[in-house]
């Protein structure tokens, strides 16, 4: 049974009452300014104020429909007796923002937190979906701990080109490699430009966006089934209106985020990501969100749960055929979760139901090849493995279901690139002697060194090997990888090279052993050699001398702890704005 609306909070209990309802000069001023905004007293006084945080922007194709969609959220809020106010917040466009929107995830998290805290807000609707916007909005909202509902932007429609169905991101990489291998030319590329991403919405593969919005649904902060609804459909409008209705009820029930995003909820979000064969980026973002909620979540949780969680979503790039629209019509996340009830905490609340069990009661799967049954999984174990070893003392991550099996256990000589520009300049240089057995190593691409851990982790395979048909190699870095990428890429090495992690000490020609079964990544060096090299290592100069980049480098934490800012991640008191 869904949540009832039995209780209406008296106006004096609402947070916004301090702004509007008290006797002093300030309330008089705030009421006068709300008249200036064009509202009658009876339209808003005593009603829950709902902030709609909207990441819409002309530069963000994944969110370009959210300006209009916010109107549906407002409709729901009005109908439920709330007072909606839309706040434009910064947009993180995975495609356009350089060097990477990851550099700005924490900035949007800060903006979210401070807007909600400093304005007369009783509850929030958070609108986003393109990769980092989901964790950013949730991290900020969790820190304020008001009631909140997340409205996922929704996936774009499937791509089409010459009779083929295209996945955004995934097919971009694939066809770019085909162009480099001389298999297609400019004419084909022009057609692909039109077909790869053909509607508003986030990437429709199981990339970072689809993974993180599904994680938000699994956490319990969206209305049921919200995360896979295609962005441009009427169903998406209805979901937005339902979210507006719901948030007002949550304010009346005082169901703040901390009551939803519990330790059990985060464990279930991890299980969900694994059952989806989701993006490696989820590891960093879920750890960051959990820490904001005061929940201890670490790399070992991912590895432990991966061993008992089958991959059931047959969605590219982890699966081989389908895209998010197929997943949606196959039953979406409720369908998938209905196949793993034994792996979930069913008695925890969500924004819509008293328990997850109730929420999933009517869930069904309508297409067994898209959402696989337990006895026919895409992979028997979850898609991620956490590696340890002398090259990554604080851990590293590999999406092993997306690599060629022959590389899961591999020893090869390192070819080291000190930064991404050097890699771009020299990767095709024959004098490097790169073979299919080489281990490509990129450093200087971590949280501090990148800065912002750009998605450089799927290092390009040299042209001469591509022409020979080589499509996968072992690649290791302190970078991240796009959720739509694939290959034997070891990512998120911690500590990163920029702060003196062992990755900084690798020489070209050193042997490196990857053994996914043993969860190990080793630099094969004689005893004492690593220490000898460390004694000679000097830290690189700071990348930023001033500005946000300098603040970022000063405060950013390493990948295994979520890349939050230290001053945001730590617990502590923040004064109420009205207490001064
Ligand atoms: Fe926005 Fe892929 S570019 S989700
Ligand atoms: Mg991405």
Automatic annotation (TrEMBL):
GO BP annotations, alphabetical order: branched-chain amino acid biosynthetic process
EC number(s) on file: 4.2.1.162
Iron keyword on record: yes
Record's keyword terms, sorted: 2Fe-2S, Amino-acid biosynthesis, Branched-chain amino acid biosynthesis, Iron, Iron-sulfur, Lyase, Metal-binding
Pfam family, one: ILV_EDD_C
Domain Dihydroxy-acid/6-phosphogluconate dehydratase N-terminal: 47-358
Family: Belongs to the IlvD/Edd family.
Recorded superkingdom: Bacteria
Chain coiled-coil ranges: none
Residues covered by the Dihydroxy-acid/6-phosphogluconate dehydratase C-terminal domain: 369-563
GO function term, MF aspect, one: hydro-lyase activity
InterPro entries: Dihydro-acid_dehy_C, DiOHA_6PGluconate_deHydtase_CS, ILV_EDD_C, ILV_EDD_N, IlvD/EDD_N, Sugar_Degrad_Dehydratases
Identification of the protein by name: 6-deoxy-6-sulfo-D-gluconate dehydratase
């Amino acid at each position: 049974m869904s949540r009832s609306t039995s209780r209406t909070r008296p106006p004096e209990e609402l947070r916004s009452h301090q702004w509007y309802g008290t006797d002093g000069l300030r309330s008089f001023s705030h009421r006068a300014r709300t008249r200036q905004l064009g509202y009658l007293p009876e339209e808003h006084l005593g009603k829950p104020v709902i902030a709609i945080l909207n990441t819409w922007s002309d530069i963000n194709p994944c969110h370009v429909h959210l300006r209009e969609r916010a109107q549906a959220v407002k409709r729901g809020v009005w109908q439920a007796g709330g007072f909606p106010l839309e706040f434009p917040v910064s947009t993180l466009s995975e495609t356009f923002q350089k060097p990477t929107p990851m550099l700005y995830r924490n900035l949007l998290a800060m903006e979210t937190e401070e807007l909600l805290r400093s304005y007369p807000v009783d509850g929030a609707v958070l609108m986003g979906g393109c990769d980092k916007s989901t964790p950013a909005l949730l991290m900020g909202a969790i820190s304020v701990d008001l009631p909140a509902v997340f409205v996922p932007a929704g996936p774009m429609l499937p791509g089409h080109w010459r009779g083929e169905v295209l996945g955004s991101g995934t097919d971009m990489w694939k066809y770019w490699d085909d162009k480099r291998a001389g298999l297609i030319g400019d004419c084909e590329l022009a057609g692909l430009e039109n077909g790869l991403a053909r509607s508003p919405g986030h990437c429709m593969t199981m990339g970072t966006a689809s993974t993180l919005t599904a994680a938000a649904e699994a956490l319990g902060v969206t209305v049921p089934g919200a995360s896979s609804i295609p962005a441009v459909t009427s169903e998406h409008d209805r979901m937005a209106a339902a979210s507006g209705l719901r948030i007002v009820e949550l304010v009346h029930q005082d169901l703040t985020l901390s009551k939803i995003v519990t330790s059990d909820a985060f464990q279930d979000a991890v299980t969900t990501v694994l059952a989806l064969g989701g993006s490696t980026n989820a590891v960093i973002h879920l750890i960051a969100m959990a820490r904001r909620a005061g929940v201890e979540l670490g790399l070992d949780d991912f590895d432990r749960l991966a061993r008992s969680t089958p991959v059931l979503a047959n969605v590219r790039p982890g699966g081989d055929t389908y895209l998010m629209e197929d997943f949606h019509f196959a039953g979406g996340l409720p369908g998938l979760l209905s196949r793993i009830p034994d792996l979930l905490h069913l008695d925890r609340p969500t924004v819509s139901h008293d328990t997850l069990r109730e929420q999933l009661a009517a869930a069904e799967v309508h297409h067994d090849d898209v959402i696989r049954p337990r006895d026919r999984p895409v992979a028997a174990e979850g898609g991620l493995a956490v590696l340890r070893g002398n090259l990554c003392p604080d851990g590293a991550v590999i999406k092993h279901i997306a690599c060629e099996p022959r590389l899961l256990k591999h020893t090869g000589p390192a070819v080291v690139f000190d930064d991404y520009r050097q890699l771009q300049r020299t990767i095709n240089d024959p004098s490097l002697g790169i073979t299919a057995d080489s281990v490509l190593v990129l450093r200087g691409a971590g949280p501090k060194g990148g800065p912002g851990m750009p998605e450089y982790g799927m290092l390009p395979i040299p042209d001469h090997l591509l022409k020979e048909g080589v499509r996968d190699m072992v690649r290791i870095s302190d970078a991240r990888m796009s959720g739509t990428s694939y290959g034997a890429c070891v990512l998120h090495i911690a500590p990163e090279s920029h702060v003196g992690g062992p990755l900084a000490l690798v020489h070209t020609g050193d042997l490196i052993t990857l053994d996914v079964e043993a969860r190990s990544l080793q630099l094969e060096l004689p005893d004492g050699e690593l220490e000898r090299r460390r004694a000679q290592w000097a830290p690189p100069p700071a990348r930023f001398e001033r500005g946000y980049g300098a603040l970022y480098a000063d405060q950013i934490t390493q990948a295994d702890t979520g890349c939050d800012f230290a001053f945001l991640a730590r617990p502590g008191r923040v004064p109420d704005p009205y207490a001064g």
